[in-house]
């Protein structure tokens, strides 16, 4: 390798080190204006698995169910839901099945009883 090409390789490597190593893999944050992400809708908890940290929510806008993870629950304390409970749901259709479901929760807010 010539000195010029070695210098180019070094400069390229240095630029990559200055970038976030995950920068190339991060997905853009969803926006409320995205056509795939509707406004908040009301949904009903079909099932919730505390031991696994996920469950399924039903709404007319998410036929077949919407997969939800505990990390998307907006509440204080232990994050859990109860079958039959009403929630406000913001969801997306990611274009692939999330654990067998066409829809995935972005935000789940329990409604007052």
Automatic annotation (TrEMBL):
Residues 1-36 are annotated as: Disordered. Residues 15-29 have a biased composition (Basic and acidic residues). This is Cold shock domain-containing protein. It comes from Streptomyces fulvorobeus.
């Amino acid at each position: 390798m010539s000195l010029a090409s070695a210098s180019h390789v070094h400069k390229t490597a240095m630029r990559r080190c200055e970038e976030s190593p995950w920068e190339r893999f991060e997905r853009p944050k969803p926006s409320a204006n995205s056509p795939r992400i509707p406004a908040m809708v009301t949904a009903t908890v079909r099932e919730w698995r505390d031991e696994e940290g996920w469950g399924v929510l039903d709404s007319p806008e998410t036929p077949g169910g919407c997969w939800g993870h505990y990390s998307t629950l907006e509440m204080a304390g232990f994050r859990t839901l109860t079958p039959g409970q009403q929630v406000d749901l913001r969801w997306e259709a990611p274009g692939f099945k999330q654990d067998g479901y066409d829809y995935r929760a972005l935000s789940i807010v329990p409604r007052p009883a």
